[in-house]
Amino acid sequence: VIIMAKNKNNQAIWNTRIKKKASTLFEKVGSSIDIDKRLYKEDILGSIAHVEMLFKQKIISFKVKNKIIYGLQKIEKQISKNNFEFNKKYEDIHMNIEKKLFQIIGDEAGYIHTARSRNDQVITDFKMWIRSATKKINTNLEKIVRSSIKLAEKNIETVMPGFTHLKNAQPISLAHYFMAYVEIFRRDQKRFINNVEILNECPLGVAALSGTSFNIDRYYTSKKLGFNNPTNNSIDTVSDRDFVLDFLYSVSVCSMHISRIAEELIIWYSDGFNLIHLSDKVVTGSSIMPQKKNPDLLEYLRGKSGITFGNLFSMLTILKGLPLSYFKDMQDDKEIVFRSHDTLINCLNILDEILKNLSPNKKRMFELADTGYITATDLADYLVKNHKMSFRNAYQKTAEIVNFAEKKKKKLKELTIEELKKIEPKLTHEVLKIFDLKNSINSKKSYGGTSFENVKKMISNYKKKQ
Ligand code: ARG
Q1: Which residue has the higher pLDDT, 466 or 256?
Q2: Is the pLDDT of residue 371 over 80?
Q3: Which of 18, 135, 289, 313 is most solvent-facing, going by the fewest CB within 10 Å?
Q4: Kind and range of the H or E element at 170?
Q5: Is 50 a residue of the active site?
Q6: Pocket around ligand 1: residues whose beta carbon is below 6 Å from it?
Q7: Known catalytic residue: 165?
Q8: Where would I find the H helices in 357-444?
Protein backbone atom coordinates (compact mmCIF):
# COMPACT_ATOMS: atom_id res chain seq x y z
CA VAL A 1 0.00 0.00 0.00
CA ILE A 2 2.78 2.34 0.94
CA ILE A 3 4.55 1.71 -2.33
CA MET A 4 1.38 2.32 -4.30
CA ALA A 5 0.77 5.60 -2.51
CA LYS A 6 4.28 6.60 -3.27
CA ASN A 7 3.84 5.85 -6.93
CA LYS A 8 0.61 7.78 -7.00
CA ASN A 9 2.37 10.73 -5.48
CA ASN A 10 4.78 10.77 -8.31
CA GLN A 11 2.13 11.31 -10.93
CA ALA A 12 0.35 14.38 -12.12
CA ILE A 13 -3.05 14.88 -10.50
CA TRP A 14 -4.82 14.37 -13.84
CA ASN A 15 -3.05 11.06 -14.68
CA THR A 16 -6.32 9.07 -14.73
CA ARG A 17 -7.51 11.08 -17.67
CA ILE A 18 -4.30 12.05 -19.37
CA LYS A 19 -2.35 8.86 -19.90
CA LYS A 20 0.81 10.01 -21.53
CA LYS A 21 3.57 11.78 -19.71
CA ALA A 22 3.71 15.45 -20.62
CA SER A 23 6.20 16.28 -23.31
CA THR A 24 9.36 17.47 -21.64
CA LEU A 25 9.06 20.54 -23.78
CA PHE A 26 5.76 21.38 -22.15
CA GLU A 27 6.98 20.56 -18.70
CA LYS A 28 9.64 23.17 -19.25
CA VAL A 29 7.33 25.98 -20.35
CA GLY A 30 4.12 24.91 -18.58
CA SER A 31 5.63 24.91 -15.16
CA SER A 32 5.54 28.16 -13.23
CA ILE A 33 6.84 26.87 -9.93
CA ASP A 34 10.15 28.74 -10.17
CA ILE A 35 8.13 31.93 -10.16
CA ASP A 36 4.95 31.32 -8.18
CA LYS A 37 6.70 29.63 -5.26
CA ARG A 38 6.85 33.16 -3.91
CA LEU A 39 3.13 32.76 -3.16
CA TYR A 40 3.61 29.86 -0.75
CA LYS A 41 2.68 31.72 2.44
CA GLU A 42 -0.48 33.13 0.95
CA ASP A 43 -1.36 29.78 -0.59
CA ILE A 44 -1.13 28.07 2.77
CA LEU A 45 -3.08 30.81 4.55
CA GLY A 46 -5.78 30.52 1.90
CA SER A 47 -5.93 26.74 2.22
CA ILE A 48 -6.19 26.87 6.01
CA ALA A 49 -9.07 29.36 5.81
CA HIS A 50 -10.69 27.16 3.18
CA VAL A 51 -10.60 23.94 5.21
CA GLU A 52 -11.74 25.74 8.35
CA MET A 53 -14.74 26.92 6.39
CA LEU A 54 -15.34 23.44 4.94
CA PHE A 55 -15.40 22.06 8.50
CA LYS A 56 -17.68 24.83 9.82
CA GLN A 57 -20.09 24.03 6.98
CA LYS A 58 -19.89 20.33 7.85
CA ILE A 59 -18.41 19.50 4.45
CA ILE A 60 -15.33 17.86 5.99
CA SER A 61 -14.82 16.30 9.42
CA PHE A 62 -13.00 17.76 12.40
CA LYS A 63 -10.31 15.12 12.07
CA VAL A 64 -9.68 15.76 8.39
CA LYS A 65 -9.59 19.52 8.94
CA ASN A 66 -7.00 19.18 11.72
CA LYS A 67 -4.87 16.76 9.76
CA ILE A 68 -4.83 19.05 6.75
CA ILE A 69 -3.93 22.09 8.83
CA TYR A 70 -1.19 20.13 10.57
CA GLY A 71 0.24 19.13 7.20
CA LEU A 72 0.00 22.63 5.77
CA GLN A 73 1.79 24.14 8.74
CA LYS A 74 4.52 21.57 8.40
CA ILE A 75 4.89 22.46 4.72
CA GLU A 76 5.05 26.16 5.60
CA LYS A 77 7.94 25.47 7.93
CA GLN A 78 9.73 23.32 5.39
CA ILE A 79 9.49 25.95 2.70
CA SER A 80 10.53 28.83 4.92
CA LYS A 81 13.51 26.82 6.11
CA ASN A 82 14.44 26.01 2.54
CA ASN A 83 13.75 22.42 3.27
CA PHE A 84 11.28 21.78 0.49
CA GLU A 85 11.95 20.34 -2.90
CA PHE A 86 9.83 22.02 -5.53
CA ASN A 87 8.99 19.82 -8.48
CA LYS A 88 8.44 21.23 -11.97
CA LYS A 89 6.25 18.27 -12.80
CA TYR A 90 3.57 19.57 -10.46
CA GLU A 91 3.48 22.84 -12.38
CA ASP A 92 2.82 25.42 -9.76
CA ILE A 93 2.84 26.25 -6.07
CA HIS A 94 -0.71 25.00 -5.51
CA MET A 95 -0.02 21.51 -6.81
CA ASN A 96 3.39 21.28 -5.20
CA ILE A 97 1.80 21.95 -1.84
CA GLU A 98 -1.13 19.59 -2.44
CA LYS A 99 1.24 16.82 -3.52
CA LYS A 100 3.37 17.32 -0.44
CA LEU A 101 0.26 17.22 1.73
CA PHE A 102 -0.49 13.73 0.38
CA GLN A 103 3.02 12.67 1.33
CA ILE A 104 2.67 14.02 4.86
CA ILE A 105 -0.91 13.10 5.84
CA GLY A 106 -1.89 10.52 3.22
CA ASP A 107 -5.17 10.18 1.33
CA GLU A 108 -7.16 12.61 3.47
CA ALA A 109 -5.24 15.34 1.71
CA GLY A 110 -7.68 14.65 -1.10
CA TYR A 111 -10.37 16.65 0.72
CA ILE A 112 -8.52 19.95 0.52
CA HIS A 113 -9.56 20.75 -3.02
CA THR A 114 -13.30 20.35 -2.33
CA ALA A 115 -15.25 23.37 -3.62
CA ARG A 116 -12.32 25.24 -5.04
CA SER A 117 -10.16 25.38 -8.14
CA ARG A 118 -6.69 26.65 -8.84
CA ASN A 119 -8.42 29.43 -10.72
CA ASP A 120 -9.85 31.02 -7.59
CA GLN A 121 -6.95 29.85 -5.47
CA VAL A 122 -4.29 31.61 -7.49
CA ILE A 123 -6.09 34.97 -7.54
CA THR A 124 -6.71 34.78 -3.81
CA ASP A 125 -3.02 34.16 -3.20
CA PHE A 126 -1.98 36.82 -5.62
CA LYS A 127 -4.31 39.48 -4.21
CA MET A 128 -2.97 38.78 -0.74
CA TRP A 129 0.59 38.93 -2.02
CA ILE A 130 0.00 42.28 -3.70
CA ARG A 131 -1.63 43.53 -0.53
CA SER A 132 1.46 42.85 1.55
CA ALA A 133 3.83 43.97 -1.21
CA THR A 134 1.97 47.26 -1.22
CA LYS A 135 2.63 47.65 2.49
CA LYS A 136 6.32 47.04 1.93
CA ILE A 137 6.47 49.53 -0.92
CA ASN A 138 4.72 52.13 1.19
CA THR A 139 7.17 51.62 4.03
CA ASN A 140 9.99 52.24 1.58
CA LEU A 141 8.23 55.30 0.22
CA GLU A 142 7.93 56.54 3.78
CA LYS A 143 11.71 56.33 4.12
CA ILE A 144 12.11 58.56 1.08
CA VAL A 145 9.56 61.00 2.45
CA ARG A 146 11.53 61.18 5.68
CA SER A 147 14.87 61.68 3.94
CA SER A 148 13.36 64.44 1.81
CA ILE A 149 11.94 66.18 4.88
CA LYS A 150 15.35 65.98 6.53
CA LEU A 151 16.97 67.63 3.53
CA ALA A 152 14.23 70.25 3.50
CA GLU A 153 14.71 71.07 7.17
CA LYS A 154 18.39 71.72 6.57
CA ASN A 155 17.78 73.94 3.57
CA ILE A 156 14.92 76.27 4.35
CA GLU A 157 17.00 79.36 3.63
CA THR A 158 19.05 77.83 0.82
CA VAL A 159 18.32 79.92 -2.25
CA MET A 160 18.20 78.26 -5.63
CA PRO A 161 16.94 79.17 -9.06
CA GLY A 162 13.55 77.70 -9.84
CA PHE A 163 13.47 76.62 -13.48
CA THR A 164 10.91 76.38 -16.20
CA HIS A 165 12.21 75.00 -19.49
CA LEU A 166 15.44 74.56 -17.51
CA LYS A 167 15.92 78.35 -17.76
CA ASN A 168 16.06 80.52 -14.65
CA ALA A 169 12.49 81.43 -13.77
CA GLN A 170 12.02 82.60 -10.17
CA PRO A 171 14.09 82.13 -7.02
CA ILE A 172 12.93 79.44 -4.60
CA SER A 173 13.88 77.81 -1.34
CA LEU A 174 15.65 74.48 -1.89
CA ALA A 175 13.52 73.10 0.94
CA HIS A 176 10.44 73.82 -1.17
CA TYR A 177 11.94 71.61 -3.84
CA PHE A 178 12.48 68.71 -1.47
CA MET A 179 8.97 69.17 -0.13
CA ALA A 180 7.74 68.76 -3.69
CA TYR A 181 9.25 65.25 -3.59
CA VAL A 182 7.28 64.65 -0.39
CA GLU A 183 4.03 65.49 -2.18
CA ILE A 184 4.95 63.22 -5.08
CA PHE A 185 5.73 60.20 -2.96
CA ARG A 186 2.78 60.71 -0.63
CA ARG A 187 0.57 60.64 -3.69
CA ASP A 188 2.21 57.38 -4.76
CA GLN A 189 1.47 55.91 -1.36
CA LYS A 190 -2.18 56.89 -1.67
CA ARG A 191 -2.37 55.40 -5.16
CA PHE A 192 -1.09 52.07 -3.85
CA ILE A 193 -3.51 52.15 -0.93
CA ASN A 194 -6.44 52.91 -3.25
CA ASN A 195 -5.58 49.83 -5.28
CA VAL A 196 -5.72 47.66 -2.23
CA GLU A 197 -9.16 49.02 -1.44
CA ILE A 198 -10.37 48.10 -4.90
CA LEU A 199 -8.86 44.61 -4.91
CA ASN A 200 -10.10 43.80 -1.45
CA GLU A 201 -12.82 41.32 -2.49
CA CYS A 202 -12.14 37.65 -1.90
CA PRO A 203 -12.14 35.33 -4.94
CA LEU A 204 -11.99 32.10 -2.94
CA GLY A 205 -14.94 29.78 -3.52
CA VAL A 206 -15.90 30.79 -7.06
CA ALA A 207 -14.06 27.59 -8.02
CA ALA A 208 -13.35 27.02 -11.73
CA LEU A 209 -15.71 29.70 -13.05
CA SER A 210 -19.32 29.03 -12.07
CA GLY A 211 -19.34 28.65 -8.31
CA THR A 212 -19.92 25.37 -6.47
CA SER A 213 -22.79 23.12 -5.42
CA PHE A 214 -21.28 22.70 -1.94
CA ASN A 215 -22.85 24.79 0.77
CA ILE A 216 -19.79 26.95 1.36
CA ASP A 217 -19.60 30.21 3.32
CA ARG A 218 -17.63 32.69 1.28
CA TYR A 219 -18.20 35.49 3.79
CA TYR A 220 -16.36 33.42 6.37
CA THR A 221 -13.23 32.83 4.25
CA SER A 222 -13.31 36.40 3.03
CA LYS A 223 -13.25 37.70 6.59
CA LYS A 224 -10.60 35.19 7.69
CA LEU A 225 -8.28 36.33 4.92
CA GLY A 226 -8.78 40.02 5.61
CA PHE A 227 -10.96 40.90 2.62
CA ASN A 228 -13.96 43.20 2.86
CA ASN A 229 -16.36 40.95 0.96
CA PRO A 230 -16.46 38.00 -1.37
CA THR A 231 -16.49 38.87 -5.09
CA ASN A 232 -19.97 39.03 -6.67
CA ASN A 233 -19.66 37.18 -9.94
CA SER A 234 -17.81 33.91 -10.36
CA ILE A 235 -17.07 34.41 -14.07
CA ASP A 236 -15.69 37.90 -13.59
CA THR A 237 -13.68 36.74 -10.62
CA VAL A 238 -11.56 34.20 -12.45
CA SER A 239 -11.17 36.49 -15.48
CA ASP A 240 -10.24 39.64 -13.62
CA ARG A 241 -6.65 40.84 -13.54
CA ASP A 242 -7.47 44.54 -13.15
CA PHE A 243 -5.81 44.52 -9.75
CA VAL A 244 -2.62 43.38 -11.48
CA LEU A 245 -2.82 46.26 -13.93
CA ASP A 246 -3.54 48.74 -11.13
CA PHE A 247 -0.47 47.55 -9.29
CA LEU A 248 1.72 47.66 -12.41
CA TYR A 249 0.42 51.13 -13.26
CA SER A 250 1.17 52.40 -9.78
CA VAL A 251 4.65 50.92 -9.93
CA SER A 252 5.10 52.61 -13.32
CA VAL A 253 3.98 55.99 -12.04
CA CYS A 254 6.23 55.70 -9.03
CA SER A 255 9.23 54.72 -11.12
CA MET A 256 8.44 57.52 -13.55
CA HIS A 257 8.69 59.89 -10.57
CA ILE A 258 11.98 58.35 -9.56
CA SER A 259 13.19 58.70 -13.13
CA ARG A 260 12.31 62.41 -13.24
CA ILE A 261 14.05 63.09 -9.96
CA ALA A 262 17.06 61.07 -11.08
CA GLU A 263 17.33 63.06 -14.29
CA GLU A 264 17.03 66.29 -12.36
CA LEU A 265 19.78 65.31 -9.96
CA ILE A 266 21.96 64.21 -12.88
CA ILE A 267 21.58 67.69 -14.35
CA TRP A 268 22.29 69.36 -11.01
CA TYR A 269 25.34 67.16 -10.53
CA SER A 270 26.72 67.85 -14.03
CA ASP A 271 29.79 70.08 -14.27
CA GLY A 272 27.77 72.69 -16.13
CA PHE A 273 25.31 73.17 -13.28
CA ASN A 274 27.34 71.91 -10.33
CA LEU A 275 24.48 72.51 -7.89
CA ILE A 276 24.93 69.42 -5.70
CA HIS A 277 27.64 67.21 -4.25
CA LEU A 278 27.26 63.45 -4.11
CA SER A 279 29.35 61.55 -1.60
CA ASP A 280 31.77 58.90 -2.87
CA LYS A 281 29.34 56.24 -1.63
CA VAL A 282 26.98 56.87 -4.54
CA VAL A 283 29.25 57.70 -7.48
CA THR A 284 31.40 55.49 -9.68
CA GLY A 285 34.71 55.93 -11.47
CA SER A 286 35.75 55.47 -15.06
CA SER A 287 38.08 52.74 -16.29
CA ILE A 288 40.04 55.18 -18.43
CA MET A 289 39.46 58.72 -17.13
CA PRO A 290 41.07 58.94 -13.72
CA GLN A 291 39.34 62.18 -12.72
CA LYS A 292 35.78 60.91 -13.12
CA LYS A 293 33.04 60.60 -10.53
CA ASN A 294 29.93 59.56 -12.39
CA PRO A 295 26.30 59.42 -11.24
CA ASP A 296 25.78 55.85 -12.48
CA LEU A 297 23.27 55.04 -9.78
CA LEU A 298 21.07 57.94 -10.79
CA GLU A 299 21.26 56.75 -14.37
CA TYR A 300 20.25 53.28 -13.20
CA LEU A 301 17.17 54.85 -11.60
CA ARG A 302 16.37 56.89 -14.69
CA GLY A 303 16.54 53.80 -16.89
CA LYS A 304 14.52 51.39 -14.77
CA SER A 305 11.22 53.09 -15.53
CA GLY A 306 11.65 51.64 -19.01
CA ILE A 307 11.42 48.18 -17.48
CA THR A 308 8.36 48.88 -15.34
CA PHE A 309 6.49 50.60 -18.20
CA GLY A 310 7.29 47.59 -20.38
CA ASN A 311 5.84 45.28 -17.75
CA LEU A 312 2.60 47.26 -17.61
CA PHE A 313 2.34 47.02 -21.38
CA SER A 314 3.12 43.31 -21.37
CA MET A 315 0.18 42.69 -19.07
CA LEU A 316 -2.18 44.95 -20.98
CA THR A 317 -1.23 43.15 -24.16
CA ILE A 318 -1.73 39.72 -22.65
CA LEU A 319 -5.24 40.67 -21.52
CA LYS A 320 -6.28 42.47 -24.69
CA GLY A 321 -8.75 40.36 -26.64
CA LEU A 322 -8.75 37.54 -24.10
CA PRO A 323 -12.31 36.16 -23.71
CA LEU A 324 -13.69 35.81 -20.19
CA SER A 325 -12.74 33.18 -17.70
CA TYR A 326 -9.39 31.52 -17.14
CA PHE A 327 -6.71 31.05 -19.76
CA LYS A 328 -3.11 29.99 -19.39
CA ASP A 329 -2.10 33.31 -20.94
CA MET A 330 -2.74 34.92 -17.59
CA GLN A 331 -0.17 32.81 -15.79
CA ASP A 332 2.55 35.29 -16.77
CA ASP A 333 0.93 37.91 -14.53
CA LYS A 334 3.02 36.79 -11.60
CA GLU A 335 6.39 36.94 -13.29
CA ILE A 336 5.56 40.43 -14.53
CA VAL A 337 4.38 41.68 -11.14
CA PHE A 338 7.31 40.19 -9.26
CA ARG A 339 9.77 41.78 -11.68
CA SER A 340 8.13 45.19 -11.42
CA HIS A 341 7.92 44.91 -7.67
CA ASP A 342 11.57 43.92 -7.24
CA THR A 343 12.70 46.65 -9.59
CA LEU A 344 10.75 49.27 -7.69
CA ILE A 345 11.98 48.13 -4.28
CA ASN A 346 15.56 48.35 -5.58
CA CYS A 347 14.97 51.81 -6.98
CA LEU A 348 13.39 53.06 -3.78
CA ASN A 349 16.31 51.83 -1.71
CA ILE A 350 18.80 53.42 -4.07
CA LEU A 351 16.99 56.74 -4.20
CA ASP A 352 16.91 56.87 -0.42
CA GLU A 353 20.61 56.14 -0.24
CA ILE A 354 21.28 58.94 -2.72
CA LEU A 355 19.17 61.43 -0.78
CA LYS A 356 21.18 60.55 2.31
CA ASN A 357 24.42 61.20 0.43
CA LEU A 358 23.49 64.42 -1.29
CA SER A 359 24.29 67.97 -0.22
CA PRO A 360 23.67 71.26 -2.00
CA ASN A 361 26.45 73.45 -3.31
CA LYS A 362 24.84 76.48 -1.68
CA LYS A 363 27.27 79.04 -3.01
CA ARG A 364 26.83 77.90 -6.58
CA MET A 365 23.05 77.67 -6.21
CA PHE A 366 22.92 81.26 -5.04
CA GLU A 367 25.23 82.45 -7.84
CA LEU A 368 23.13 80.74 -10.47
CA ALA A 369 19.94 82.11 -8.94
CA ASP A 370 21.48 85.55 -9.13
CA THR A 371 21.61 85.46 -12.93
CA GLY A 372 19.08 85.54 -15.75
CA TYR A 373 17.02 88.52 -14.48
CA ILE A 374 15.31 86.06 -12.18
CA THR A 375 13.48 88.76 -10.19
CA ALA A 376 11.77 90.29 -13.22
CA THR A 377 8.34 89.01 -12.20
CA ASP A 378 8.84 90.59 -8.78
CA LEU A 379 9.44 93.94 -10.45
CA ALA A 380 6.30 93.61 -12.54
CA ASP A 381 4.28 92.69 -9.43
CA TYR A 382 5.78 95.69 -7.63
CA LEU A 383 4.67 98.06 -10.38
CA VAL A 384 1.12 96.66 -10.20
CA LYS A 385 0.96 97.02 -6.44
CA ASN A 386 2.68 100.39 -6.01
CA HIS A 387 2.09 102.34 -9.18
CA LYS A 388 -1.44 101.38 -10.12
CA MET A 389 -0.57 99.58 -13.35
CA SER A 390 -2.35 96.64 -14.91
CA PHE A 391 -0.22 93.53 -14.88
CA ARG A 392 0.12 93.61 -18.67
CA ASN A 393 1.47 97.19 -18.64
CA ALA A 394 3.81 96.34 -15.80
CA TYR A 395 5.02 93.30 -17.71
CA GLN A 396 5.83 95.49 -20.73
CA LYS A 397 7.69 98.06 -18.62
CA THR A 398 9.70 95.33 -16.91
CA ALA A 399 10.61 93.78 -20.24
CA GLU A 400 11.97 97.16 -21.33
CA ILE A 401 14.04 97.35 -18.15
CA VAL A 402 15.37 93.81 -18.76
CA ASN A 403 16.28 94.76 -22.34
CA PHE A 404 18.12 97.80 -21.05
CA ALA A 405 20.02 95.78 -18.43
CA GLU A 406 20.95 93.22 -21.05
CA LYS A 407 22.32 95.94 -23.33
CA LYS A 408 24.34 97.42 -20.46
CA LYS A 409 25.52 93.93 -19.42
CA LYS A 410 24.23 94.56 -15.92
CA LYS A 411 22.14 92.54 -13.47
CA LEU A 412 18.80 94.10 -12.50
CA LYS A 413 20.14 94.90 -9.05
CA GLU A 414 23.11 96.73 -10.57
CA LEU A 415 20.91 99.29 -12.36
CA THR A 416 20.91 102.72 -10.75
CA ILE A 417 17.67 104.43 -9.78
CA GLU A 418 18.39 107.06 -12.43
CA GLU A 419 18.62 104.39 -15.13
CA LEU A 420 15.39 102.83 -13.91
CA LYS A 421 13.60 106.17 -13.79
CA LYS A 422 14.48 106.83 -17.41
CA ILE A 423 12.26 103.88 -18.34
CA GLU A 424 9.65 104.29 -15.60
CA PRO A 425 9.67 107.76 -13.99
CA LYS A 426 7.30 106.72 -11.18
CA LEU A 427 9.95 104.47 -9.63
CA THR A 428 11.65 105.45 -6.35
CA HIS A 429 14.59 104.07 -4.34
CA GLU A 430 12.24 101.63 -2.67
CA VAL A 431 12.18 99.48 -5.79
CA LEU A 432 15.77 98.33 -5.30
CA LYS A 433 14.84 95.89 -2.50
CA ILE A 434 12.73 94.01 -5.05
CA PHE A 435 15.87 92.57 -6.64
CA ASP A 436 16.92 90.82 -3.46
CA LEU A 437 16.52 87.05 -3.91
CA LYS A 438 15.51 86.23 -0.34
CA ASN A 439 13.03 89.08 -0.38
CA SER A 440 11.54 87.62 -3.52
CA ILE A 441 11.23 84.14 -2.01
CA ASN A 442 9.74 85.48 1.18
CA SER A 443 7.08 87.40 -0.69
CA LYS A 444 5.56 84.17 -2.04
CA LYS A 445 3.28 83.70 0.91
CA SER A 446 0.26 82.39 -1.01
CA TYR A 447 -0.78 78.90 0.12
CA GLY A 448 1.62 76.36 -1.32
CA GLY A 449 4.15 79.06 -2.26
CA THR A 450 7.87 79.06 -1.52
CA SER A 451 8.15 81.66 1.29
CA PHE A 452 10.45 80.48 4.09
CA GLU A 453 7.53 80.77 6.50
CA ASN A 454 5.26 78.59 4.34
CA VAL A 455 7.94 75.97 3.88
CA LYS A 456 8.64 75.82 7.61
CA LYS A 457 4.96 75.39 8.31
CA MET A 458 4.61 72.63 5.70
CA ILE A 459 7.57 70.76 7.12
CA SER A 460 6.16 70.85 10.62
CA ASN A 461 2.71 69.79 9.36
CA TYR A 462 4.25 66.74 7.73
CA LYS A 463 6.34 65.94 10.76
CA LYS A 464 3.21 65.95 12.92
CA LYS A 465 1.58 63.47 10.54
CA GLN A 466 4.48 61.00 10.74
N1 ARG B 1 -0.58 28.38 -12.17
C2 ARG B 1 -1.82 28.82 -12.69
C3 ARG B 1 -1.80 30.31 -12.96
O4 ARG B 1 -1.10 30.98 -12.31
C5 ARG B 1 -2.93 28.53 -11.71
C6 ARG B 1 -4.26 28.44 -12.33
C7 ARG B 1 -4.31 27.25 -13.20
N8 ARG B 1 -5.60 26.93 -13.67
C9 ARG B 1 -5.74 26.19 -14.75
N10 ARG B 1 -6.95 25.89 -15.09
N11 ARG B 1 -4.73 25.74 -15.47
O12 ARG B 1 -2.44 30.81 -13.84
Answers
A1: 256
A2: yes
A3: 289
A4: strand 167-173
A5: no
A6: 32, 36, 92, 118-119, 122, 326, 330-331
A7: yes
A8: 362-369, 376-386, 391-408, 417-423, 437-443
